[in-house]
Amino acid sequence: MQQEARGHAPSWLTHSLYDDAAAVLSPETLLPPDHVLDFIDRQSISHGLYGWWFDHCLPIVPRSGCIMREGKYLLYIGIAPPKDRLVRRGAPTPVKSRLWRNHLRGTVRSSTLRLSLAALLEQELELEFWRDARNRVRMDRHHEDKLSEWIAKHAGISVAHHDVPWSLEETLIRNGPPLPLNLSMSEHPFKSTLSDMRRALARV
Fold first, then answer.
1. Sorting pLDDT into bands at 50, 70 and 90, what band is 135?
2. Are 58 and 120 in contact (CB under 8 A)?
3. Confidence check: pLDDT of 26 > 70
4. Domain boundary assignment for the chain
C-alpha cells in the first residue's frame, strides 16, 4: 500500500533526517520538469537531493509502499554533486547541471535514470538501442528526444538544498521509502528485474 506524502516524519526516518529531506519526500507541490530549473534558481539551490515522481504510465514498476503525491509516486532519488566531486569555480551549480545535462536533456549513457526509463519504455515508445565500441548502451538523438518528451509529460520532481547530500543518500535508499528505480545501494526486490532489462538492451 502506498503512502501519501505528509508533513511529519514517517517511522522509518529519524526526525533530523526527515527535516533534511522533507522538501524531497513531502514537497508542497511537485515541479513539472520544464519548471524545475527556474525553481532551483529562485531557491538558490546548489548542492542537494532530488526526487523523481512518476504516474501510472510507467509500466511494471512496483509501487507498494511508495510515497504518493498528486497522482505520482516517488520512485527514484539522486544527489548532486557526488561525494568528493570537486566543483569548479564558475561552473553551473551541481544540482542544476545534473538535472538538465544528464536527466532532462542528457542521454542513456549520461544518466542511469534515463537508461532505466528507456529499458522500461522500450516497446511503448518504440525505442532503438545500439552499443558503442566500449559496449555501452546508446540511443540516437531522435529516440532520446522521444524519451525526454515522455519524461516531460509523466514526471514530477522535488528538490531540496543540502550542503552534503551524500550524507542522506545511502540512508534514504537503504532505510527510507521503497525506491524501485534506485539500483546503487538498493536492496529493493525490483532491482534484479530492472538490472536484467538494462543488460538486455541492444543484445542479439
1. very high
2. yes
3. yes
4. 3-192
What the block records as the C-alpha cell of 116 is 532505466
Task: Give which of 203, 185, 186, 201 is closest to 62, Cα–Cα.
Answer: 186
Alpha-carbon torsion angle 136, 178, 157, 49, nearest 10: -80
As to burial, measured by CB atoms within 10 angstroms (0-12 exposed, 13-18 middle, 19+ buried), residue 203 is exposed
Residue 77 pLDDT = 97
Percent of the chain clearing pLDDT 90 (strictly above): 77
Please report the DSSP string for the chain in residue order: --EE--SS--TTS-HHHHHHHHHHHS-SSPBPGGGHHHHHHHTT--SEEEEEEE-TTS-S---TT-EEETTEEEEEEEEESPTT----TTSPPHHHHIIIIIIIS--TTT-HHHHHHHHHTTTTTT---EE-TT--EE--HHHHHHHHHHHHHHEEEEEEE-SSTHHHHHHHHHHSS--TT--TT---TTHHHHHHHHHTTT--
Give the C-alpha separation, 19 to 16, whole Å: 5
pLDDT digits (tens, 9 = 90+) for 43-79: 999 999 999 999 999 999 999 999 999 999 999 999 9
